[in-house]
Amino acid sequence: MLNKVPEVTVIFWIIKIMSTTVGETGADYLAVHVGLGTTLTGLLMASLLTVALVVQLSMNRYVPWIYWLTVVLVSVVGTQITDFLSDKLEVSLYISTAAFAVILAATFASWYAVERTLSIHTIVTTRRELFYWAAILFTFALGTAAGDLATEALGLGFSVGVLAFAALIAADAGASALGVDAVLTFWVAYILTRPLGASLGDLLSQSREYGGLGLGTIYTSLAFLTVIITLVAWLSFEGERASKTQAFPSN
């Protein structure tokens, strides 16, 4: 089958950050404002993620709306895993951050031991795609824990958190431009965009009393979902047009 993930472009990173923000604000909205609670929200989102993954795995090529729907749902579930550990089981953010870092490292090690590559440009078998989505899930869980650790436990706050993680991503991009391994810098950036998106979501949605701008989780989620849907629709349109151009080349 064809490669199952999109090319890494500016639009890719915009949608990725937006999806992480939706994961943060959407999970908070369902658990707190709708009143479903952390456990029920987690079970509901996990069920939807399972369905989306089945559809995604059944495809033999990259389909934008299916892929990015799966990413958004992984973002919500990853957030819920960390929140469940912190809020329900009262696991320290230091411990959960370290634990998810170890689990993610083990996932990458297993993936590389079996496939001899961690490149996203070679997701052309079901086994590689399963490794890929496992890694994605744990990057979201790790990013959530690390973001909460920085903004809450370490007291950086949402504004400083956004700036700090943006600076780390910029440093990672600089390392990539200087010739550091592209696969390594990609996955570092992928991990860091999670706490960046979470901090941005909290900055926009949380009340001014807690250091946010007070827009609320509903408006923040809707605004970012609108951007995601618009960009994914555009990608789908461009993909279909490119396919038609290749099928019927002009003379």
UniProtKB/TrEMBL annotation:
Q: What transmembrane ranges does the database entry give?
A: 30-55, 62-81, 93-114, 130-147, 153-171, 178-197, 217-237
The record ties this protein, via InterPro entries, to: DUF347
Q: Which organism is it from?
A: Bradyrhizobium betae
Q: Which UniProt keywords apply?
A: Membrane, Transmembrane, Transmembrane helix
* Protein name as catalogued: Membrane-anchored protein
Pfam families of this UniProt entry?
A: DUF347
